[in-house]
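=== RUN LOG ===
request id: a7f3
mode: sequence -> structure
chains: 1
length: 285
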Amino acid sequence: MDNSRRQALFDRLLEKDWNEPQEYTSVQAPEMKQKVWKRIKWKISWQRKIFIPAAAAIAVIAISSIMMLNHLPDNRAEYVVASDSGEKYILADSSSVYIEKGSAIKFSENFLEDRNVWIDGSATFEVKKHEGSQFRVHFGEAVIEVTGTCFHVDRRDAENDIVILYNGSIDFCPKKGENKIEMGPSQMLTYDRANGKITMDTVPESINWNDGKYCFRKVPVTELLDFVGKLHKKDIIIQNNEKSGERLSGQIRYDESIDDILAKICFSLDMKYSSDGMTYTLYAQ
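=== RESULT ===
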């Protein structure tokens, strides 16, 4: 096998490893590099093909909150699903919920007639669209009304709620009785709970949600790092101007830590990173 074919194979295998959940013990992730080259040698020997399946897009809600689960507004029977280690739960309407460790969701026994869910902690929802039936997610005093779309909500901050919309449209209502705010694709809303101030920003259109993962293809490194920083509420700096122009493709699982994500990025760019707890800095090896 010539060098060009070997490099192409390396790139394909590297992208496949991007798409698999990993745990790393160092920021350089040497185990990942060794595994890729080992598989290349196996590939050369056996000449087998590797296929990376493509998943179909689906309506999604990603929710993170720190509020307490109150009782349902009336005396209907309620169901609470909690997770100690993280799991996938399928609701009666065939919507899927990825419940993260230490989190819980609650809904009523007549969920098919009244699709309302309350959440404590962090979870990701893949919502099935039902004609004439709206899906609502409650967290704190806020409510998000869903008709079939993909978005992320983060309530872990002590002062602000953050909503990121990937596609479709949603209505954000900060409090009961207040005007709804309609959001469009690739918009990011930040809501200050103390003074009610709302600011709008944008996220890369090339990053989408699919089956528990953030998927991206040929995204500029600077945009990817900005997106990761917003997800984890950290500042990320890259010191190498040449590397900042690179483009990356891959997937990030919703439950991957920022260290695992940056380990993959650094491995792809042949860089290292350091952190002081709030700011992460990528630099040349």
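=== NOTES ===
The chain has two domains: 3-52+213-284, 60-202.
The chain has four helices and 20 strands.
=== END ===
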